[in-house]
Specification:
Layout (H helix, E strand, L loop, with lengths): L5 H5 L3 E15 L13 E13 L2 E14 L2 E16 L6 H15 L1
Antiparallel strand pairs: 1-4, 2-3, 3-4
């Protein structure tokens, strides 16, 4: 029985080759020592974008912000920005399509 290589099964011409945590900010704005975790409503905001550097290299970004609110006050905020470097290996995508791929797939990849 012939063994299949993983890269032969799931290969895509655009590959994520590295990731980096670009920014992390954690801030407590109010005391919540007497509040139970289940009583804190959360708000999650996610933004994504991409940037083509050359015909075969680009970056995808995800910006996530998580806020906890209690009694009409923001009690904490966590903000993270991740960046992933991608290669367009056999350049079958135009720069415009590469840009769209970076924007659309950034949340899933990162």
């Amino acid at each position: 029985m012939k063994m299949l290589k993983w890269e032969d099964i799931v290969y895509h011409p655009i590959q994520l080759i590295s990731t980096e945590l670009v920014e992390m900010n954690v801030r407590r704005t109010e005391s919540f020592a007497n509040v139970k975790l289940g009583e804190i409503p959360f708000h999650l905001e996610v933004k994504s974008w991409g940037k083509v550097i050359s015909e075969n290299e680009g970056y995808m970004y995800v910006d996530m912000k998580l806020e906890g609110n209690y009694e009409d006050s923001k009690i904490f905020e966590i903000k993270l920005i991740y960046r992933g470097k991608c290669l367009n290996n056999n350049r079958v995508f135009t720069n415009e399509d590469f840009q769209k791929f970076l924007e659309i797939q950034s949340v899933r990849f990162l």
